[in-house]
Each structure stands twice: as C-alpha cells, then as structure tokens.
C-alpha cells in the first residue's frame, strides 16, 4: 500500500544529499532511459514499495539515483541484485565492506553507495567501483605525466606522446567509457562541476587523439590496441 509520508521523507532525504536542483525535460528523458521507476522495479521483483522506501531510509539500500520532475523515484533496474547476492538487505553492509582489503575504505564506499550517487557506473558493484577507481587513477597519472613532459621541467614518462603510449592511454579510456553511462546536465549541477566522463574520457580523447593506423604496418606502432593495463590498487 502506498504511503505518501514515506515518499515525502525519501524525497527530502534525496534533496539533503543531492541539493535542490531542477530536472530539465532532457534530464527527465535521460533518467527514464537509463533507470526505472521504483514502483515498476518493485512490482517486477514482487517487493512492497513502502517497505523498500523504509529500507532506503534506514540505510540498508541506496537512495534513488534521480527524482524525476513528476516525483518518480528513479532507481537502477538491478536495485536488488547486490542485496540478493549478499543474502538480503540486512547482510548487504557486511558483505559490501568485506569486498575491500581496507575496512575504512569499504565503509567510505558503502556510504557513497547508499547515497545513490553512483550514477557514474552502468552497473554498480564493488568490482566495478574498484575498477573505475583504478582506471581514473591510471588515466590521471598518465595525463599528469604528459603535462609534466610538456612543461619546462621535462619530468615524465620517456615515451609520452608516442603512438605506443597513446594507444595504452586510449585502452584505459575505452575501458572506462564502457563502464560509464553518458551522464546528464543534472549530474553536473549536483556534483558541482565536470564529471569523470568529462575529465577522464572526453577531455583526454580531445587532448591526445588516437593514432591513425599505418596500412603498411598494421597499427603503425607495433603495439596491439587494448593491451595497456591499469595499475591495480591491490
């Protein structure tokens, strides 16, 4: 049974976390394309929407990812996947934090997960969170090295700017691109500026264009695209 009070409390909590920013028609269309109404997700899973809202407010499931202009609570279609994998919402916290070697890091990621703000990933799980973090770290380090090499200090990787280096960089960017959705303008409002796609994908591709293939030599670099590896945090 619908409980308007729970809807109101959840909307208030959402705005406490994200700020009170307007959703444009384009933002609404994006949320509809990439997410699903909580009511629909609950109906498909045989869950009580009121009970799910209580679980969100209790900090055992993440808040909605977006509130559409009409008030619809937009959530990932696989909202319950991690809880089911952990053995239920009550077990989710312990299971989630245990996926990190550092419990403090796990708790920080748990808080971020509960906020509903992991809209930077097509599928949210400890594995994709960790991989995204590793990719962003590697891309940031590579572009910082390129900037240092271009400066008067001359400090940076010795092969910065070569086709092989650029292909390794693009392998990282392409992998991050596959993990992340497009984002929408609302995200840049609630996060107060550019998102990771802006900084680590679009800007990097613009600043470091992909090398053109050399028909006489296959790739023209002697390096197969996609063989670059991001450093692991483990």
Q: Report the count of strand segments.
A: 3
Quick one: biggest sheet? 3 strands, antiparallel
Classify the beta-strand content into a percent band: under 5%
- Strand neighbour order, sheet with most strands: 1-3-2
Helix content: 55-70%
Low-confidence regions: 217-234
| Average residue pLDDT | 89
Instruction: Return Rg in Å.
Output: 21 Å
Structural class: mainly alpha
**H/E element string?**
HHEHHEEHHHHHHH
Distance between the termini: 46 Å
The shape, in one word, is: globular
Query: Helix tally?
Result: 11
Question: How does this structure look, described?
Answer:
- Helices cover 55% and strands 3% of the residues.
- With 234 residues, the protein is mostly helical.
- It has a three-stranded antiparallel β-sheet with strand order 1-3-2.
- The longest helix has 25 residues, at 126-150.
- It is globular and about 60 Å long.
- The chain starts with a helix and ends in a 27-residue tail after the last helix.
- Residues 217-234 have low confidence and may be disordered.
